[in-house]
């Protein structure tokens, strides 16, 4: 279970290694994702909280910014191009839009059948999505905060050691009311978590002390 703390302006959540999390951000609120241990991928989906058929689109986001990586100034957009979240601060410098979420199926294909029963990000998304009436058909290509997925010269993708470090953070501002789903990635078969998943901290900040 995630643990929470609260002050007048902030509500914070410590999300354990491998765990899911979800919340609704009101327009103008900011979400800070802090990599406590370093080299921990945080898989992320977001939806218009008032109409979840409008959800993050990797294709629209990449096309609008003409860059496959996310950092300060990037805007996460719906398939219609409407803004959901803006990256307003980033001390890591680059985040992935292409690597996708690990699943039992992809684990078994990439790493062998013995990994099929390992917990994965897709299961985390399904657990949290169910709380909001979402199911498997509502899962789309996701953001991987802090995950290092370079594109090689031949066009292939690599999953390599992260470029993050303990205490680095990315901060997002909600441009409308936004439902966010988080999987603190449980992957242990590639370097995206340094083969050792660790906790992360999420902090929701309200402007002017209100909601």
TrEMBL record:
<dbReference type="InterPro" id="IPR017791">
    <property type="entry name" value="UAAP2"/>
</dbReference>
<protein>
    <submittedName>
        <fullName>Urea carboxylase</fullName>
    </submittedName>
</protein>
<feature type="domain" description="DUF1989">
    <location>
        <begin position="15"/>
        <end position="179"/>
    </location>
</feature>
<dbReference type="Pfam" id="PF09347">
    <property type="entry name" value="DUF1989"/>
</dbReference>
<dbReference type="InterPro" id="IPR018959">
    <property type="entry name" value="DUF1989"/>
</dbReference>
């Amino acid at each position: 279970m995630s643990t929470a703390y609260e002050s007048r302006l902030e509500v914070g959540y410590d999300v354990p290694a491998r765990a899911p999390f979800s919340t609704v951000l009101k327009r103008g609120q900011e979400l800070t994702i802090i990599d406590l241990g370093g080299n921990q991928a945080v898989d992320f989906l977001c939806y218009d909280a008032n109409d979840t058929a409008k959800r993050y689109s990797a294709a629209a986001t990449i096309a609008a910014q003409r860059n496959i990586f996310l950092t300060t100034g990037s805007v996460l957009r719906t398939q219609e191009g409407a803004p959901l979240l803006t990256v307003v601060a980033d001390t890591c410098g680059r985040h992935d839009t292409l690597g996708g979420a690990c699943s039992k199926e992809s684990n078994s294909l990439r790493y062998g059948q013995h990994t099929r029963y390992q917990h994965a990000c897709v299961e985390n998304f399904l657990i949290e999505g169910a709380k909001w009436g979402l199911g498997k058909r509502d899962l789309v290509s996701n953001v991987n905060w802090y995950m290092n997925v370079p594109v090689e010269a031949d066009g292939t993708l690599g999953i390599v050691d992260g470029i993050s470090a303990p205490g680095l953070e990315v901060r997002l501002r909600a441009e409308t009311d936004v439902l966010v789903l988080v999987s603190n990635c449980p992957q242990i078969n590639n370097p995206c978590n340094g083969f050792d998943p660790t906790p992360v901290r999420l902090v929701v900040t309200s402007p002017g002390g209100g909601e």
